[in-house]
Structure prediction request, 641 residues.
Amino acid sequence: MNRSRVGGLLANSVVWGYALMILGPTLWVLSNAFKFKIDIITGATLSPFTWMNFQELLFSRQSDFLANLFNSALIGVVSTAIVIIAATMAAFTLAYLEVKPWVRWAILGWALLFHMLPTLTFVGSWYLMYSSIGLHGTYFAVIMTHAVHNLPMALFLMVSFVGALPRELIQAARMDGCTYAQVFWRIVFPLVRGGMIAATALTFIFSWSDFAISLTLTSRDTMTVPVAIATFAQEYDIRYGEMAAGTLLSIMPALLLILVGQNFIVRGLLAGAVK
Amino acid sequence: MSNVSLRGLKKSYGSVEVIPSLDLDIRSGEFVVLVGPSGSGKSTLLRMIAGLESIDAGTVSVEGEDVTQRDPGDRDMAMVFQSYALYPHMTVAENMTFALRMRGMDKTTIGERLTESVRMLSLEGLEHRKPGQLSGGQRQRVAMGRAIVRQPRVFLFDEPLSNLDAKLRARTRIELRELHEKLGATSIFVTHDQIEAMTMADRIVLLEKGRIQQVGSPREIYERPRNTFVASFIGSPEINMMEGKLWFDNGTAWFEQLVLRSRGSESASLAGVAAGGYTLGIRPEGFDIAREPLEGSVPMVVGAVEYTGSDTYAFGKSPMGDLTVKIAADFQAVAETLHTGETLHVKALADGWHLFDSSGERVTGG
Prediction:
């Protein structure tokens, strides 16, 4: 065997190993969703097909899954809207208005640092903050926290998108009589729509799949899907079937968003790499 | 039509002084070209006039009206950018009428102005295209159209021709000049290209390091450069600069081995000039050429001959340094047989020279 074949084999095995790490559990979960509990526990590969897990999940009185889906959607949509509007406007301000350089770097630096710190470092204090003002367990608490948590990433994405617009375009609009607000709405906003779609898809998925914040700040009424799925694992009884069915259902919106937004996401992550 | 006047304009970026202090008056209807090497502050100056760049001190006024603190959109100036800066998401018509729509002008007037400008710039049939579907030349015309429809008091141009190829640039230069004659609006044009400056300007403002080196008609600037910088910047091939001693002998003026004469009475332009060290500037066309030595000529060993079609230039070494010499049309026979290594004898034409003192300021000359 020559060198390049060894290299090729190595590369292939890395890719397949990686795929196995992701696809293995996914397939396991997928198949569990359609199995009877007894088959899951005994580890039977070929087993009778059933919709029972979905029925239990969606319609039994023990489960609030439909409400959880609604909570996740509501929290995801509202927090994403806040994040995208704030991030796009902030990006425009940082890129084109006369912001002192140190202010720009301080904001972007803080955003990066905040994004790098583990979420778990913060959830304790957030819990205390919201509890002390009586807002623990409300939609407001989770939505605001998700917004704060996801803003840095969206800000970075939007800064690269908005910053990629030619400066002269903004100046031309200024010469044409636009105020900065008009420049934003009439020129910048239509031109960074692609970037906004990418940032929206990513932000929504992050909010949708968040566990740490939602676990700490939601109550029974505001519980989101990932937290609900975790509650199926109880001390004496792990309801694998329902967990699997819930996971499958919760993947759907994210999958849909990725399919719609993947072009924009790739472009967003590469923005500014080449002209 | 409006006059523009700049008083004591200053601009620094941090500790870097881009424009130390600048005064300039631009007459109504005048086509003024700001020219200078890169980093001379010409674009910054234009953007300060436009209001796109903040001003540290001084005033910009249009027709006596101080507009220094006004927003760019409230100065009644239109600008054509180097990159054209067309709005990519709008059609040609939308691009051109954007400023009018922002002002809330009524639709009939907008329509009339659009039709007129489209016709003037021969953009008919392209109104509904997006900028991405246009060629470079068409984009350039749309950018012009966007300025024209506004019928502004002042037009500002920031190197609008530099993205065109050479042929199109030459044609657009003429079109732009014709357009200016037609509209008669005050125009301020920035370029680093001396040919653009020379061919288009009523008056040239030559800038270096944020300071005005000379203001004058293209002819004045070329024929009476105020200092060595102006003399070297304008003119292609570049002027020959020689340092040396000026001395007089029986009423004849000599610069090292070259005789300096004036038209009419001999050495008239040197009356009252003291002998001593100076810098002499002679443009390539300021030489008389001969195969045999003449009185007051220097020998030049030809190093290279450049034939450009209409002109022939010889480059070579002389006792007074490297020289570039244009071979006059009546000397074409020589040009055809001229070869490297041959010795020519060159002398300064009467009034074909410029004398500068040790600080580079003009003393006298043709």
Remarks:
- The radius of gyration of chain B is 25 Å.
- Residues 36 and 207 of chain B are 5 Å apart (CA to CA).
- The first helix of chain B runs from residue 42 to 50.
